[in-house]
Amino acid sequence: MTKLRPSLSRARAFCERFGLRLPILLAPMAGASPPSLSIAVASAGGLGACGALLMQPKAILDWAAEVRNVSNGAFQLNLWVPDPPPERDPAHETEVRSFLVQWGPEVPSDAGNATPPDFSAQCEALLAAGAPILSSIMGLYPPEFVSRLKARKITWFANISTVAEARAAEAAGADVVVAQGMEAGGHRGCFDASGAEHEMVGLFALLPAVVDAVDIPVVATGGIADGRGVAAALLLGASAAQIGTAFLRCPEAKTNPAWADALAVARPEDTVVSRAFSGRAGRSIATDYVRAAIAPDAPAPAPYPVQRGLTAAMRESGAKARDVHRMQAWAGQSAAMARVEPAGEIVSRIWRDAEVLLS
Ligand SMILES: Cc1cc2nc3c(=O)[nH]c(=O)nc-3n(C[C@H](O)[C@H](O)[C@H](O)COP(=O)(O)O)c2cc1C
User: Fold this and answer.
1) Residue 135 — very low, low, confident or very high, per pLDDT cuts 50/70/90?
2) Using a 6 Å cutoff on CB, does residue 136 contact ligand 1?
3) What is the arithmetic mean of pLDDT over 78-83?
């Protein structure tokens, strides 16, 4: 029998540890994590995921019960670690509201008050949901919560986007770090939100540097969308690959068709990191609204999560009208590789292609 190459044996050890048949993880995607997508990925041997940021505790418990009922229960539940409340500036919010009227309905004067669900209550729901893996982004879980995870033998995956964050996550007790390259779709996971645009490290540089800096397994994420990307990530030292955008055109993702269609034609240079939707830096398709919002004459976005509240009316009306230019069309730089294909088939195809390249 031929000896497995180091990248394949590392991936195999990761799979054995987490009960997977292949080292492909669905990325947690807030607002884009329907149970159907995780069921399909877990049933194909990968790891499902739920981005629970916007979900109330009951919705988190219902999500976990539904996925567990019809799959082997291999999934991660994920939360954003919150920042202190933002400083409000009513005059500036009025400016942003007037700008947004060009793109959608009138923005109510209290729209900026919208706040995400209570973090502590969500954390309790994560524990009660019985997930085998909990993950964090935008910071680290507080030490007392980490102790409760450890006592329950729950694994902690910490998203990081720099070497310093990886070291901090390992020191805080993370079991695995998820190295997020700046190619990634959705929000950048920087611990210090203000530094997101200045710490734009690509996955090819980030991954080997993080692998060398920590002793725990490293998962690669950002711009991975086919077997070549997974093989490259494993060769650079990753134990598994986490994929987001490439699943967004699957039927199980139930993505708004305008967004799904726009992904198909988005070249790497057609995506951009901006604060236009939420006030926090995230990568989306450079739609007409995004281009206007980042132009020098546009008002600066309000801080997170105020901007998210201010843009809600535009985003909702854009989604209803299937007008991608007024929707938040999050996309990684490999968006155009996303195929209309069942998620289970994507998982199998990507791993089959990666294995050929790695053998
Ligand atoms: C629509 C969308 C929502 C996301 N929401 C979250 C989230 O709530 N939590 C999180 O850790 N990462 C989130 N991410 C980032 C992904 O976990 C991952 O880093 C990214 O999808 C990888 O890049 P790719 O999209 O090119 O595969 C999101 C990504 C997308 C595309």
Assistant:
1) very high
2) no
3) 97
**What is the value of pTM for the model shown?**
0.97
Of 24, 25, 26, 29, the one to substitute when testing ligand 1's pocket (max ligand atoms within 8 A of C-beta) is 29
Q: Say if CB 157 and CB 134 are below 8 A apart.
A: yes
Ligand 1 touching residue 184 (CB < 6 A)? yes
90: CA distance to ligand 1 center in Å? Answer: 31
Q: Strand 75-80 to strand 133-137: parallel, antiparallel, or no bridges (unpaired)? A: parallel
**Contact yes or no for 187/159 (Cβ under 8 A):** no
Count the Cβ atoms, other than its own, within 10 Å of residue 356.
10
Beta carbon of 245 within 6 Å of any ligand 1 atom: yes
Q: Is the distance from the beta carbon of residue 78 to the nearest atom of ligand 1 less than 6 Å?
A: yes
Cα(100)–Cα(96) distance, integer angstroms: 6
Each residue's pLDDT tens digit, 237-268: 999 999 999 999 999 999 999 999 999 999 99
* Distance between Cα 28 and ligand 1 center (Å): 6
Does residue 32's CB lie within 6 angstroms of at least one atom of ligand 1?
yes
Q: How many CB atoms lie within 10 A of CB 221?
A: 28
Alpha carbon of 67 to ligand 1 centroid (Å): 19
| Tokens at 224, concatenated | 């991975």
Tokens in use for 80?
């954003």
